[in-house]
Amino acid sequence: MTTAPLTLVRLANFVAPASGGLRTALRELGKGYKAAGHEPVLVVPGDRHTDEETEQGRVITLPGPLLPGTGGYRVLTDKRRVAAVLEELAPDRLEVSDRTTLRWTGKWARRARVPAVMVSHETADGVLRTWGLPQTLSQRAADALNVRTAHTYARVVCTTEFAEREFVRVGARNVVRAPLGVDLVERHPALWEAALRARHARDDEALLVMCSRLSVEKRPGNALDALEALLRRGRRAVLLVAGDGPLRTRLEQRARERALPVTFLGHVRDRDRLAALQASADVCLAPGPAETFGLAALEAMACGTPVVASASSALPEVIGSAGDSAADHGEAFADAVEGLLARPERERREAARARAECFGWTASVEAFLAAHDAPAPARRPLQEGVA
User: Nearest-5° angle of CA 182, CA 185, CA 186?
Assistant: First the structure.
């Protein structure tokens, strides 16, 4: 196991200016690799070629076409150009955050004798089910894909036990666990703002927030279903939606037609503003059934806001007893919201924060580096902690 500084090249698709969790994970891991003394290089698709030094190391964008119906995602489709960049960079390690369109890079790495890992940011069968494929067919297709993925890469990194299950099911023996993390300084309960909360909700109203991409696999409509169920029961509540995506127009139309108190904020680029919104809410909703970790929900918990998550996702494993999980329909989410709001506010906020403190980025970076057989040469603080 080497401790020498490494050129660690990372490839990712489906990263856009309005991306959420994946963009955050790539940034924080890159910062951690750099702080550990390595040379991280991130290669992602964009509208043109760029090459710059950033806080997370070198970031290269290569021209990639827009993927229709995704609300701005681009994909690296020019294999020869990507391969040429890889040859030029001469990586010591390769990390790939796309199990489909970039899986060919695992074979490139094998030919180049570069140890490569694939990071599983979603379950294949979960995504296929959210797109309407029956469970039997989705599992069969996912199993075939996962067998090929496990054979292609030296290691597969899963962020939760939930994400690991589908690889264990096909007998993969090269799977390692490495959780993601949260910035415990940038996200903190002290960011609660009375004026901000008053701007969006009255004292007698519950302020709900959903931070999510508005796409079919995230099931954002379940949050509106939950709000509607709460209102039918006489619970005063409003919903803030931070995020954008192909379903936004349809969701806005539904909210207007049913006179639902929903505010669509779009993609919130200002991370401080987003943190204040998360801290000032009473409950965060995370309805995505295919989530393998749920960074936005963890960030809300770091701000002291408990989470109601899809029971079909990995989030129950992440939030523990600090939040609640629900079946994938509005009534179940409304029940879970009611249960959390019945707890004393101080108790539920302290529990959320305490759980989030189990997931710092330092431990995450060390676990990812260990997956690369590249632990940090020296233990250095990665600018996180409890303020």
Answer: 75
pLDDT at 128: 74
Q: In whole angstroms, what is the distance from residue 314 CA to residue 323 CA?
A: 13
State the greatest distance between any 2 C-alpha atoms of the chain, in Å, as a whole number.
63
How would you list the strands of the sheet with 262-266, edge to edge?
Answer: 262-266, 237-242, 206-211, 283-286, 307-310, 324-326
- Fold agreement (7-181+360-371, 189-356): yes
Contact at 8 Å (CB) between 241 and 261? no
Mean pLDDT of the chain: 91
**pLDDT tens-digit map of 6-47:** 999 999 988 766 667 888 999 999 999 999 999 999 999 999
Beta strand ranges found along 129-174 (DSSP E): 155-158
Dist. CA 99–CA 10, nearest whole Å = 13
CA 284 to chain centre: 15
- Interacting residues of 29 by C-beta distance below 8 A, sequence separation 6+: 10, 40, 56, 361, 364, 365, 368
Average pLDDT over residues 190-216: 96
CATH of domain 189-356: 3.40.50.2000
Token code pair at residue 64: 């990639």
pTM exceeds 0.85 for this model: yes
Query: What pLDDT is attached to residue 326?
Result: 98
pLDDT, tens digit (0-9, with 9 covering 90-100), for 48-77: 999 999 999 999 999 999 887 666 788 999
What digits encode the pLDDT tens for the residues 82-102? 999 999 999 999 999 987 889
- C-alpha triplet 291, 295, 301: angle, nearest 5°: 115
For 296, the 3-state DSSP assignment is helix
Q: Which CATH architecture has domain 7-181+360-371?
A: 3-Layer(aba) Sandwich (3.40)
> What is the CA angle 215-193-308, rounded to 5?
40
- Domain borders along the chain are 7-181+360-371, 189-356
